[in-house]
Amino acid sequence: MSITFKKKVSSTPNVRLPLGTRLNSNGTLLLTSTGISSLDTFIGGGLPIGSLLLIYEDQNCNLSDSIVRCYLSEGIYNKQDLCVAALRTDPIENLPTKEENISSSDNRTDEENEKMKIAWRYENLSTIDSAAASTIHYDLQSSKPIPNELKEQVKIHKITWNDCTSSQSYRQYLLKSLHKLLTNDYSSQQAEKRILRIGIQSLSLSLFDGNSANHFDELFAFLYHLRILLRTSLATCVITLNEKSKLFETVADLVFELKLSNLIHTDYVAFCQLVKLPKLNTIQPIIPDTWDIGIKLIKHRKNLVFEKYSIPPDLSADASRDEKTKSLTCTPSKEFDF
């Protein structure tokens, strides 16, 4: 006899959720989208409020910048405030606009109705949970700016290196600015529930300490204190890094690595390897079908789509291509069936 417990969540909660957020299927987490719906499907539906996401950059591509830009654009369209600390070009200057692809649903229906005859193991595989949600996407090459009436409804905070005084390091200035912002305006105890999206682009180790021996210690301390601030705030944070360390992954809630595709005959421009998934407010963490994801730039390199490109091997005892191949006999046959 097995006993299972399931938490019942009211369909009409008494508490009004902040703009641009929703509860997960169990009703235990408040989620907001990353701005890329196909990526949300791999991380449990979106970013949990109060979580820290680390993206390991690929030196040969700028996909991490595109992900951050979609993340910030999603905040503007959902009336969520932004905080940006960028070391390269300002991502606020050319944010992608939201577009809707209507014709993709008709083409996808025709493809799903067509039965695959050769790749028999792929027949029952859902092709893109991501593609079902990619009818609405952000156009990375759009020349149209985001409407000013949308930008005027949100607050955009910028933390630049030029504002840092010589008496303190950049780490101290950045952490002090975020502490003041999160505790005063975006605390979970505030009456007005507004979400803040923090985007820190290319957080270089060289900006934290002149002594190379203390680089990782300085950055680890920064990430550790930032996570404490996020836990008591209505905010999410996305940080891109050009260095990898197991120490950083212990303080982050979600980590994935970008790798440029060096395959010639492939539709994928890069690959995304999931390193760590959120484990907030749950005993059993999310277990995806695969930890390896392919990234496509479709529709003339306008929007990003995340897909699973590897399939686990079928190790079941009755795995077979055809019912006829299950029994092997030595009796000769006039007809050869392959």
Automatic annotation (TrEMBL):
<dbReference type="InterPro" id="IPR008728">
    <property type="entry name" value="Elongator_complex_protein_4"/>
</dbReference>
<dbReference type="InterPro" id="IPR027417">
    <property type="entry name" value="P-loop_NTPase"/>
</dbReference>
<keyword id="KW-0539">Nucleus</keyword>
<dbReference type="GO" id="GO:0002098">
    <property type="term" value="P:tRNA wobble uridine modification"/>
</dbReference>
<dbReference type="GO" id="GO:0033588">
    <property type="term" value="C:elongator holoenzyme complex"/>
</dbReference>
<protein>
    <recommendedName>
        <fullName>Elongator complex protein 4</fullName>
    </recommendedName>
</protein>
<keyword id="KW-0963">Cytoplasm</keyword>
<keyword id="KW-0819">tRNA processing</keyword>
<comment type="similarity">
    <text>Belongs to the ELP4 family.</text>
</comment>
<comment type="pathway">
    <text>tRNA modification; 5-methoxycarbonylmethyl-2-thiouridine-tRNA biosynthesis.</text>
</comment>
<dbReference type="GO" id="GO:0005737">
    <property type="term" value="C:cytoplasm"/>
</dbReference>
<dbReference type="GO" id="GO:0008023">
    <property type="term" value="C:transcription elongation factor complex"/>
</dbReference>
<dbReference type="Pfam" id="PF05625">
    <property type="entry name" value="PAXNEB"/>
</dbReference>
